[in-house]
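The following block was generated as part of the benchmark described in Methods. Ligand: ribose-5-phosphate.
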Amino acid sequence: MKDYIVFSLSANKKLASEVASSLKVPLGEVEVKHFADGEVLVKSLTDVKNKDVVIIQSTSDPSFDRLFELLLFINSLKNQNPKSISLFIPYFGYSRQEVPYNNEPNSFQVVCDILDTAGVDKILTFDLHNPDEEHLKTEFVNLHSAPLFIDYFKKVFEEEGLANKDLVIVAPDHGGNLRAHNVLNGFDGSQLIVLTKYRPEPNSAEHLQTSEDLTGKTCLIIDDIIDTGGTLISAAKLLHSRGAKEIFVAATHAVISNNPENKLFESGVKQIVVTNTIEKDLDEDIKVLDILPLILEQL
Ligand code: R5P
């Protein structure tokens, strides 16, 4: 076992403290101060010289504050010469802005360049929006929450007496194909369909019609993010219109802006399952799975 010290900044306090106590290692002490003009000063109060440091910080809303806090903190640690720094970014903000259209910036690449400059040894995240392209020079690991979803839904479907042949795993867009496949692998004999999504305008999602006959089928939609809920609401409506008996949703990151929960349940979704990559208060009907075991496997 390495000589770890685990640090939490503002985003994942509960998770970081659980990682430290599971590893039986100290949770480092952090001091955060603000100057009169709002500028932040953040530093470690724990000595990290020659230690293997683990930082856990999602760059979730407010993404800029969390990213900047992280960058300053990494710099403060490096001044103390730790042996290594592993950075877990459970939810990687700006990861959806990775294909620049119409003179837009490649915001994700900008964030990756900044993190490369910050100079940690390894960056780990969960279900990155588009894991196909290499944006970071730093050693990078994209972890999958599929094993959590498989374990959880195996129990749910077993209790329902559902046979895998009556289960359809659904990718709500082509970008979600790999994530849906990862879950499909846990349900031998089930089927996968990939829907075609388009966005008539930002923050609005619609799907093209599908010819699949889903009469009597249970659908499990797999997505990386629930934000406005538009993608899942549109997908659920389409699946119902094709005869789906019931619809479950599993999405890794509960970004959840503008309280879409009611609309999601009204669209006929039976259960919504997310993970705790983002720590926030969620509707009590949303089931939250814990990524802690997947983090511990990496340490
Ligand atoms: C988009 O391609 C992503 O995979 C998610 O489907 C999307 O970010 C979800 O956003 P919303 O809930 O706003 O539709």
